[in-house]
Amino acid sequence: MKYNHYNRLLIFVLCVFSISSISCFRNPGEIKKHQTWEMVEITLEAGKEYSNYYTDVTCWLELKGPDFSKRIYGFWDGGNTFKIRIVATKPGKWYWQSFSNQPDDNGLNNKQGEFEAAGWSEKELENNPNRHGFIRPSKNGHSLQYADGSPFFIIGDTWLAGATWRLPFRNAVSPANYEPGPGIGFEDAVTYRKKQGFNSVSMIACFPNWEADENSNTYADSNGIFLRNAWEKFGYIVKSGQMTSKDMRDESGNKPFEMSQLHKGVANFDRIIPGYFQSLDRKMKYLSEQGFVPLLESVRRDNCPSWKAYYDFNESYSRFIQYLISRYGAYNILFSGIHLDWIPKEYSLTADEFNEALTYHFKKYGPMPFGQPYTTLINNSTYTQFGHGQDCPWLTMHSVGNNPRDHRVSAMLDTLFKLVPAYPAINFEPYYTGWDHPINKPHGEHPAVNSARDNYFTRAMMYVSVLSGGLSGHVHGTAAYDMTTTGEPAGFRPFIWDAMKYKSADYMRHLGEFILSEDEKYQTLEPAQEDILPRKANGSFDDGLDGWSYMMRNVEKDFALLYFENGSVKPALKGFLPDRRYSLKWYDPRTGKWEKPLIVRTDDQGSLTIPSFPDSKNPSDTDWALKIKKE
């Protein structure tokens, strides 16, 4: 009897213990809760010491969830700390397990976790469009949309040095009525542009070889290797009689890399400084919280001749590209593998050399982990420089930019639109308001800064680029791309706070409102310039921005968007449905105002003649946009 009593008691205790253990494990309250597209950061502490944590250690998670199973790489964040940033792309349970190339390090391997992700409410989606999911190509490949299918049209601005102290993060709320002025901070600039309808900014992550020192802004070392072709720090003259380089540290004085002990003036591209990127973290997080989708670029091309001369370029550059993707790939971004605005022989590697390095990275690490577009800012066209498809397997979004900045960009975009398979396309560097430079003068003309003519050129380039096939959106720019700021003379380019108030930025909101006036229907448009008769006014120039007309129309021929530059002539339009009533609605790209609709009927060949321009002049003395819809 005594034996049976203890036996039953033991069985009872074991059962209670087992039930309690299972209940604790399965208790939903013990599983961490997150929401879809919300960045989740996993921290690992290395159990061993390494001579160079950046080059010696590669760590990753195997992340699994609903319709998702991928390797997500981590990054070194100083000391023994590694971080891996992930997101849940769908509601449900998510699981992860850690691995590394150091199998004996217990701090990096075989760590496990799980969490449950929930979707957002309608109200929460309204508060931040990034909650619709990461950006990806539309179904037909020609434009962009959020993961849930909502259209995304880039209304971007150019803040190339925005990652540095030149636009410092204040960790302070900006007043809603903020106006740019001296002492401008990062949050101030975001607040101002968001109020104007912007949803994106373009930033270069870092400028490793740039410093305000005893050398000129462009110089080579004793081996003849050019170390930089930097923007001038106005007023700071060195022994050569030239200006030195703009300094590009973060707000705390950090550079992105240690400096080489062997090669003076060259960054040690195998020794990263995490503190610099911790500063950039704050800015990227803030942009995400404000609903922005930034274009994040790796480096400017002029830092790379010394990178290739003194380091194993493909391996070292690939490591850095992956560092950026690992650190910022859990945000809603567009990623640019190189800022290739110009390809001079001395100050840059060739497009083929960059393509080789970026393809090396793609084969080693794979594509963007959460599917965001991968592109580059380019001189002329990414297709011209890199090709398409398997020519450059890393590239998923095409671009044009920098040169030319006139009508000739239209043919480049038309070529991109016709590529198979289709990729989204955009003009990242169009005409810049207020910039006096030979490539920024349509037909050689340089108007007064911020004048009506100067702002017209910027406005025309917006509509020309989008209605030539750049349906991803548009990126605005000014002469303050170098971000001259507080504490230094402006020189021959303006202070950033002055340029931000140029009138041209106001037109970007109107561009977006025009293109999205029928919601996502713009995504179905195709170039139809050949159906405008005549398309060009007599005496208009190929290298100008006057006298040309543009049209994109859908296959069903029931919807079209048009733009008529200053000096355009009233054309006949063909290729519409025969003997149908169409509504024509003029749009003023200067004010964002619609005119009252007009009704016209096509003839039996599908041609229609538009009435006179709204200013009642023919040819027009200003620019107009037009929407045509079948009744």
List keywords for this structure.
alpha+beta; 13 helices; 36 strands; 631 residues; globular; single chain; Immunoglobulin-like; six-stranded parallel beta sheet; disordered N terminus
Question: Your description of this structure?
Answer:
Helix content is 23%, strand content 25%. The protein is α+β, with helices and mostly antiparallel strands and 631 residues long. Among the domains are: 1-30; 31-119, Immunoglobulins (Immunoglobulin-like), CATH 2.60.40; 524-630, Immunoglobulin-like (Sandwich), CATH 2.60.40. Strands 27, 29, 30, 32, 33, 34 and 36 form a 7-stranded antiparallel β-sheet that branches. Strand 3 (59-65) and strand 4 form a beta hairpin. The longest helix is centred in the N-terminal third of the chain and has 25 residues, at 2-26. It starts with a helix and ends with a strand.
Question: Helical proportion?
Answer: 10-25%
Quaternary status of these chains? single chain
Name of the level-1 CATH class of the domain at 524-630: Mainly Beta
CATH 2nd-level architecture of the domain at 524-630: Sandwich
Query: What count of helical segments does DSSP give?
Result: 13
N- to C-terminal distance: 94 Å
The parts where pLDDT drops under 50 for at least 5 residues are 1-29
- What is the percentage of strand-forming residues? 25-35%
Please give the number of β-strands: 36
**Cα shape:** globular
The largest sheet, given as strand count, sense and whether it forms a barrel, is: 7 strands, antiparallel
Q: Using only CA atoms, what is the Rg?
A: 27 Å
Class by SSE composition: alpha+beta
| CATH topology type of the domain at 524-630 | Immunoglobulin-like
What is the overall pLDDT average?
Answer: 94
